[in-house]
Amino acid sequence: MRNASFFPRSRYILLCLWVLFFISPAHAAPEGERARFVPGEVIVTYRGTGAEEALHLRASSAEGGSARVFGALSSASGNTVAVLRIPGKSTEELLEEFAADPNVLDVSPNYIISLLMRTPNDPRFSEQWGLYNTGQSGGSGGADISAARAWDVRTDALADRVIAVLDTGIAKNHEDLRANLWSGPGGSHGYDFVQNDDDPEDDHGHGTHVAGIIGAVGNNGRGIAGVAWNVKLMAVKMLDADGYGTSAQELAAYNWVLARKQAGVNIVAINASFGDSSPVQANKNAIETLGRNGILFIAAAGNDGRNSDSSPLYPASYGLANIISVAATDKNDRLTSYSNYGRNTVHLGAPGGDTGGGAGAILSTWTSYTPGPGDIFFDDMEQGKGNWITSAEGSSQNLWDIIDTTRSGVPTKAWSDSPGRHYPHNQRTFLRLNRDINLSGTSGESIMFGMQVRLDLEAGSDFLVLQFSPDGGATWRDMHSFTGGGDKWKAFITSVPPAFRTSRFRFGFRFESDSSNLIFRYAGVQIDDTGIGRANASSYNRIAGTSMATPFVTGATALVASHFPNGSAAAIRSRLLNSVDKVDALSDKLITGGRLNLYKALQTGSDIGDDGTSGGCMLSSTPFSLVLLLPLLGLTRRK
Ligand SMILES: [Ca+2]
Ligand SMILES: [Ca+2]
Ligand SMILES: [Ca+2]
Ligand SMILES: [Ca+2]
User: Fold this and answer.
1) 583 and 518 in one domain?
2) Domain end: 57, 87, 111, which one?
3) Distance CA 214, CA 631 (A)
4) Which of 240, 278, 504, 545 has the maximal Cβ count within 10 Å?
5) Residues 223 and 282 in one domain
6) How far does residue 365's CA lie from ligand 2's centre (Å)?
């Protein structure tokens, strides 16, 4: 017994469980940095009970040596059990020496026993109460997914396990995500069904936030920790810069993921933090097909504060055997006021947080771009019209001009389509750059367009359309269309696709109004602070929603699927559902009556079914009437 590795880790578990809640995790040094045992000390068992004197003699032979005999244990066992400290000798030397003594029954190093807990060095981990709730910010200690305990078991997914994030894309150059992105042929990280290219750059933030909860790089000394510290994140962009998408884009995303799976990419789960109240049969069938191909589908229950048993939300409520529907809990383990629930239709809770962006919300990675001087291009209109050209088609009146206006109470100059008046009907006018921006050599970078825009348009019939040109204005493609607006300034960003990274890039706007007679009510548009530059790669944000709860479960899925690599998708799902912490506030609201507990889901206990049949979660047989979900961010699908 001289080799430290002989000792199974499970030996510590019994020893340590009771201390978990009494010792601050700050005392648990990161694994790899801590010593395995106390140098110069051994635990020795001598044959018979008469060895105490000999032990003290042996200890006193070294300066500072000592022997501590455990009297009760020694009498009870009939052998002398002691800890010896012999300075000046290495533990290895002591082990060898005592093992050679025929009177020694047993000798081992004095191991340093770690807590069953592991905390990463990411500077903002202390704000991530959903992972490890110490009661910070007024929360309840333990109202978390027991990630710190789980990480003592496993921090990383297996290298080939992939999680598909169907969302607004992922900020591919983010400092805390870059290393965890899946890379396919040609180095792409997924696909973009909004811009229809293989660069699913996030131009909203939501998808990057979700991705960070699942798998921000853990223990890298930056930002936050994901549920899985190391996992492959595949970005499938199906929601646009405003957070909207269509059922067809959703279906295209399913088709693409299935094709990758069939091509051998080991996709274990899809994160679906989106939804709508109208079911689409083809999409339901597609999710079922994904299930038959071994892919779990983790879906947000929705943010309407409704009972999904009677007001279903899709895809969470499709009632398929591979779906896990997730409700949102707060830092005190209560169901949040916005979360949908359903005793028959919503499976479990996970931290979704409080609205309002405070400490009770969920902190994760984000993407942002604020145009400013020093960017690749920037024009705040304060120097006049030098970069611009305006034009009109047909009978349109070209009224474009730079006006004096205010934003956030501060005077500024900005473009207006119709200064000092309401815009005319049947307009088709253009505001475009008159010079090229050189974007050659920027492939692989996260190049963004950004602006401040103030919109007051007849919703659904009059539009401002953002256009990009790759060839100095010879051809233009519509990139994003704006309508409605409410006459308030807002920041807008979108990514510049690879096809436009030429030496002759330009952007511009088309303003179009129809013939409807409501023109007197609308002021038109104002445009300011336009820029082309790089996304902020160290952006973080706090938001809340079932959108945020869902990726906690998805991250857990990645770790469970890696810890039990031979388990079927059904068994992994069963394990997640059967290991929840039962919580009073959820007992009559959710199928499992509980909140995700990652630590328990990683245990090999007999109380957790490994075959997918045990436990009380036979969801596929539940009759469903068929029913979105991001209340706060308005991530609804546009019909
Ligand atoms: Ca793109
Ligand atoms: Ca990190
Ligand atoms: Ca300005
Ligand atoms: Ca109109």
Assistant:
1) no
2) 111
3) 21
4) 545
5) yes
6) 9
Residue-wise over 31-44: b if at least 16 C-beta within 10 A, else e? eeeeeebeebbbbb
Q: Residue 412 CA: which ligand is closest? A: 3
- Coil, strand, or helix at residue 19? helix
Considering the domain architecture, whether residues 245 and 341 belong to the same structural domain is answered as: yes
For residue 453, give the ligand nearest its CA: 3
**pTM for the whole thing?**
0.81
**Closest ligand to the CA of 517:** 4
310 CA to centre of ligand 1 in angstroms: 38
Number of domains in the chain: 3
Ligand nearest to the CA of 449: 1
Q: What is the CATH number of the domain that holds 427?
A: 2.60.120.260
Q: Are residues 381 and 527 in the same domain?
A: yes
Mean pLDDT per 10-residue section of the chain, whose length is 639 residues: 33 29 33 63 88 87 89 89 89 89 89 74 97 94 96 96 98 98 95 97 97 98 98 97 94 97 98 94 98 98 97 97 98 97 98 95 98 98 98 96 98 97 94 98 97 96 97 98 95 98 98 81 95 98 97 98 96 97 96 98 66 34 28 36
Look at residues 483, 504, 534 and tell me which one is the last residue of a structural domain.
534
Q: Which ligand neighbours the alpha carbon of 461 most closely? A: 4
- What residue numbers bound the domain in which 529 lies? 377-534
Residue 414 CA: which ligand is closest?
A: 3
Give residues with Cβ within 8 angstroms of 286, minimum separation 6: 251, 254, 255, 258
Cα–ligand 2 centroid distance for 299 (angstroms): 25
DSSP of 160-203? T-EEEEEES---TT-TTTGGGB---GGG--EEETTTTBS----S
Q: How far is the CA of 415 from the centre of ligand 3 (A)?
A: 8
- 417: CA distance to ligand 3 center in Å? 15
Ligand nearest to the CA of 365: 2
In a domain, 136, yes or no: no
Amino acid (1-letter code) at residue 596: L
What separation in Å is there between the alpha carbon of 8 and the centre of ligand 2? 30
Condensed to tens digits (0 to 9), the pLDDT of residues 10-55 reads: 333 332 222 223 333 333 333 334 467 788 889 999 998 888 888 8
Strand partners of residue 181: 233
Residues 215 and 266 in one domain: yes
Q: Which residues surround ligand 2, an ion (CB under 5 A)?
A: 122, 176, 217, 220, 222-223
* Euclidean distance between CA atoms 635 and 451, whole angstroms: 21
Q: How far is the CA of 499 from the centre of ligand 1 (A)?
A: 9
